[in-house]
Amino acid sequence: MKTASRSLSPGQVLCIKGQSIALDGEWGQCLGTIDRHGVALVWGASGSGKTSGVMMLAKELCKHGKVLWLSLEMGFSLSFRNALKRHGMADCGCRLQLLEKCSLEELKERLGKKASPEFVVIDSLQYLGINYREYKALKEQFPGKLFIFISHAKGPQPSGRTAESILYDADIKVFVEGGKATTRGRFFGPRQYAVIWPEKAFDYYGPEISK
Description:
The protein has helices spanning 10-14, 25-31, 50-61, 78-86, 104-111, 125-128, 132-141, 161-169, 198-205, and strands spanning 20-22, 33-35, 38-44, 67-71, 96-99, 119-123, 146-151, 153-154, 157-158, 172-177, 180-183, 193-195. The strands form three sheets. The protein has an eight-stranded mixed sheet, with helices on both faces. Strands 1-2 form a two-stranded antiparallel ribbon. Strands 8-9 form a two-stranded antiparallel sheet. It has 211 residues and is an alpha/beta fold.
């Protein structure tokens, strides 16, 4: 017979440790402290700075565990390599693992291995080509992982039915525009935004972006 789950008091829940990450830098200003597991959706138009922004976040997460980055859209192109150099991603060493080709089944196989990465960046959701049912199955199969999906945008909203559905489900929701990432989810830092491309943000928003 299946054993019922143990109930906890509010005090016991509040004493649970090791399930959250206090972010530093710009992402700390934007998101503050986040769960180690769950789903993040980051979306924005082409050239908005979303890949650079997620690289900054991935570098921060490498302080807390291993990160797997699926560069499905950009591959290992010159543009991608330049972004790696610009953000000093080589400093992450073996804590950052990069793939330019990976199917959904291959991803599941990798994540099912012992000591697999805790954090998974998928760039992009559209290039992975999954539907919402497949997304839910992936999330439920690996409840201890943090999945970060980078998505195309249609105006101020994620592009496509799957991305729209994930938006409602995700704990971390970040819209990137003009070199600035703004949180729209359940986690808020003191400023609620991150400047991820200072020059672009200055041109787009003006001097007030530095305040």
